[in-house]
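Justification of computing resources. Each target in the renewal requires a structure prediction run like the one illustrated here; the chain below, 503 residues long, is used simply to show the kind of job we budget for.
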Amino acid sequence: MVIPRPATLESVDSAPFTLAPDARISVAGPGASAVAELLRAELASDCSRTLTVVHEPPAFGDIAIVIADDEAPTGHEAEGYTLEVAAEGVRIGAATAAGAFWGVQTLRQLVPVECSSDPLTIGAVRVVDHPRYGYRGAMLDVARHFFAPDAVKRFIDAIVLLKVNHLHLHLTDDQGWRIHIESWPNLTAHGGSTGSDGSAGGFYTQDEFRDLVAYAAERHVTIVPELDMPGHTNAALASYPELNADGVAPALYTGAKVGFSTLLTGDETTARFVDDVVREVAAITPGPYLHIGGDECQSTDPADFLRFIADASATVARHGKIPAGWHEMGKSDQLPEGTVGQYWDFLTPRGTAADETLSFVRQGGSVILSPADVAYLDIVYEDGDRLGQDWADGPTSLRQSYEWDPARIVPGLTEAHILGVEAPLWTETIETVADIEEMVFPRLAAVAEIAWSPAPADTDAVETVRDFDDFAERVAGLAEHWEAAGTNFRRVPGVRWRERVRS
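Resulting structure tokens:
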């Protein structure tokens, strides 16, 4: 019925709720009005119901949003909520605005898609729900192909329905630099002028980035900016000759190769560059995390890499942010306490990936799980697909995206060490919003459920980790909401897709 699957959802044997055209949204508590306005806008779009928000007790047939300390499930005050649907009305209770907002997303999925005519009824249910992990993320690579602010906002609107609460923006790479840095303006003037396959490029002004951050925050999504370094830096190197060992700027790069570029380490100009870009991005990022990449640095001397990562992560901490990076940063044993590692290797770790990941925990940090063979959204669904890549043991089916568990990947990594789960989308082959949505949906629904819903039973049998048939049935229902919203998605095998609700 709902994705992610709530902690508990019980159908109640009583009359359904009828959402009348004159229904109101009654609010009480700090932040309830803002959540109600978002619900009001969504119902107007989803159901052509224009409700009134009132600061008074609910009447029969109203929707109530109540935020108070004692409204959340015990022990889950940050994002937990309760939702009751009955004939007399709907009531969402939470201790925080975030919890109430996630309750609203559950309610939206319960509202019938064919809701333009009366009566509009919702079956009576009681939901008590809370997330498994505090960090539930999606990543959008805007460096290889640039996506304008409106496209990013559309992406945010789509992912919140799945209770995703972090958007990791991969802002810099060999193919493009996408955030304006006032102290190094040629990064965007030159380095942001193109992208993969010679695409037109583009960048966000700092005001545009602030606006994106604010838009996301209104929807309880935290933006995590990534400035990838010391590798994946050709766009920066092409913009400033002084960042290169020979003082010569390379040409802009529009291909897909990785591992060939590196900042000049142990250099005063590079140190000033890193400090400036971190300082400026940290100043416009109210969220706690700043990601500095650290992956695939095949052209950086190993000893220089260790020194660079220690210095760059310390710079992030000095500017008031929690450093985050891909698991290769765990090669360093001089990370600031609390540094977050992002594991991107396979379900069965290869080489030193497991030890590098555990290094973050040994140094007082935590881990985000993004195993490439099940959580990377750019891996092809099927052989021969026009969009996507197949390097991570692809194709990756919806079932594969669903039947895994974060706590069973890296030996020694316990539930307490895991900050959360993230599904990245790299955009070497992704050029349009429709491309993004086709690759993201429905597989993000699988990863989002892994991040939100309760842990499976303690068993090693893959087929008992989760009930895919039940999930697939719920995906079919959610797809009706995607169609009604105009969100593109892939009709993958294994789901009994329903007839299209709109042509």
